[in-house]
Design a protein that fits this description.
three-stranded antiparallel sheet; globular; iron; iron ion binding; four-stranded mixed sheet; Cytochrome p450; alpha+beta; monooxygenase; Cytochrome
């Protein structure tokens, strides 16, 4: 009976959209079927990246705008940098897929509605200014060296880096975001991280089952019951941490000073704003903390894996990174300082070039809140537009070698596109990632420590991807380390 209702809804929606659609339409990506559109491509993990990659290339070759049909719902795909920037500075509300995570991060900076986002982003921005980020450098060194020590037990062996990098990412994120003691840190490393891992799978399972996109069906599903249980687990872990920190701050007469050069985790700043300015509820604080973890969890893990893959394959690149590190550290065996990281110019070029070729979030979706004219087409209010970061990074403005790994292009301004929307690995328009500089510092620090101690070896010829919550390498991504002498 539920299936019959679903089919009838599809037919009615199809007729209504055909009657409503009178404007000139962008080209439809090949492979759509009657009624279901491209939906059949999104039901298996292995197929999803194939259709999304093909969509990016098709759109690039057809004017920078195309349509994917989810059933009879049109999703407008953009690879033109000008159209993308125009659309995303107008459309600030995220598409409905993002709201699958509302139980966990409803008012977080990634998923919140535009009005809430504007207020909260302004309040949280100081926590991610460069002066405060510089205070995290000691913790970044500690966690990076911890990972380097862990890798010492794998020398000469082929390693899947997902588990060690997930641990590293969870450790550095929870330390800088929550500022946990050893006991609470252990709890986060185990139960909190495990809950996030399982929730990521559930969100993705829902995304691949179109009928579960509808709240009516989802609320009656076993998947919803599993999600509720895990969300409650996360809440039960974070709530006591927040309450304990609030009490500690009151007992120690916490003073918020933006010029303070002491380590201040993000949680302290959120609690200060909540208690002194009534800016956040405890639920909103939890949602922001969960958002910071989600934003770093898979994206940083995958980014670091791919950077290590690239430098493991391109030996000349790896040696240039090593030589740059030695020069910056004056050949001394010491930690990186806040003044060292900006000097790692070539390493930053390698990181950016890797993220250009393989953005961990290759698509970003928004809801079109009003009719928008983009060139000769009009995106109707209520529809969805999605920017292909993967496509923009292969736009002709990058030159004929756009699909090649060339870090040196970042060292010569004449080789870079003269467009503010050319590199969008950290987002597009006003809602770009608040943690952009934080992520760059984390990646520079850990890659710097690894390359300073080990030779990295990889084989890009077998690298394969599938699209889950992020673009995940699934084959050919094992890495081998040998000790530098």
């Amino acid at each position: 009976m539920l299936v019959l209702v679903f089919v009838v809804c599809l037919v009615v929606l199809s007729v209504w959209r055909r009657v409503r659609s009178k404007n000139l339409m962008p080209p439809v990506v090949p492979g759509a079927l009657p009624l279901i559109g491209h939906t059949h491509h999104f039901t298996e993990f292995e197929k999803i990246w194939n259709i999304l990659e093909q969509t990016s290339l098709f759109t690039l070759n057809n004017g920078g705008i195309s349509i994917i049909k989810i059933c009879e719902y049109n999703a407008y795909i953009l690879t033109d940098p000008d159209l993308s920037l125009m659309a995303y500075n107008i459309c600030l509300n995220k598409m409905y897929f993002y709201h699958f995570t509302d139980d966990l991060v409803a008012n977080g900076l990634i998923t919140s509605e535009a009005q809430t986002w504007k207020i909260h982003r302004k309040l949280i921005n100081p926590a991610f200014n460069q002066q405060n980020l510089n205070n995290f450098i000691d913790e970044m060194n500690v966690q990076a060296k911890r990972l380097v020590s862990e890798l010492s037990t794998t020398l000469g062996k082929s390693v899947n880096m997902r588990k060690p990098l997930v641990r590293y990412t969870m450790n550095i994120t929870s330390r800088t975001t929550l500022g946990l003691n050893a006991e609470d840190q252990t709890l986060v490393e185990k139960d909190y991280a495990h809950a996030f891992e399982l929730l990521s799978v559930l969100y993705y399972q829902r995304a691949t089952k179109p009928w579960l996109h509808l709240p009516f069906f989802f609320k009656r599903s076993a998947l919803k019951r599993k999600q509720d249980k895990l969300t409650e687990t996360v809440k039960n872990i974070l709530t006591p941490i927040i309450q304990k920190r609030r009490l500690e701050m009151k007992m120690n007469s916490y003073i918020n000073n933006e010029n303070d050069d002491k380590f201040q985790p993000v949680l302290n700043r959120l609690l200060h704003l909540a208690d002194e300015q009534n800016a956040f509820t405890d639920t909103e604080i939890r949602e922001h903390l969960n958002t910071f973890v989600i934003a770093a969890y898979d994206t940083t893990t995958v980014s670091l894996t791919l950077i290590l893959m690239m430098i493991g394959w391109h030996k000349d690149v790896q040696e240039r990174i090593y030589n740059e590190i030695q020069e910056v550290l004056n050949n001394e065996d010491r930690d990186f300082t806040k003044n060292d990281l900006p000097k790692l110019v070539y390493l930053e070029a390698v990181i950016k070039e890797t993220l250009r070729l393989y953005p961990t979030v290759p698509y970003i979706g928004r809801t079109v809140n009003r009719d928008i004219a983009l060139g000769k087409y009009t995106l109707p209010a209520g529809s969805t537009c999605a920017i292909s970061l993967y496509g923009i990074h292969r736009h002709p403005m990058w030159g004929k070698d756009a699909d090649q790994f060339i870090p040196d292009r970042w060292l010569d301004p004449a080789r870079l596109p003269n467009h503010p929307n050319a590199f969008v690995a950290f987002g597009v328009g006003k809602r770009y990632c608040i943690g952009k500089q934080y992520a760059m510092m984390v990646m520079k620090t850990v890659i710097g420590h690894i390359v300073n101690q080990y030779h990295v070896h990889s084989d890009l010829s077998r690298l394969k991807f599938q699209y889950e919550v992020v673009l995940q390498p699934t084959k050919g991504h094992r890495i081998t380390y040998t000790k530098r002498t």
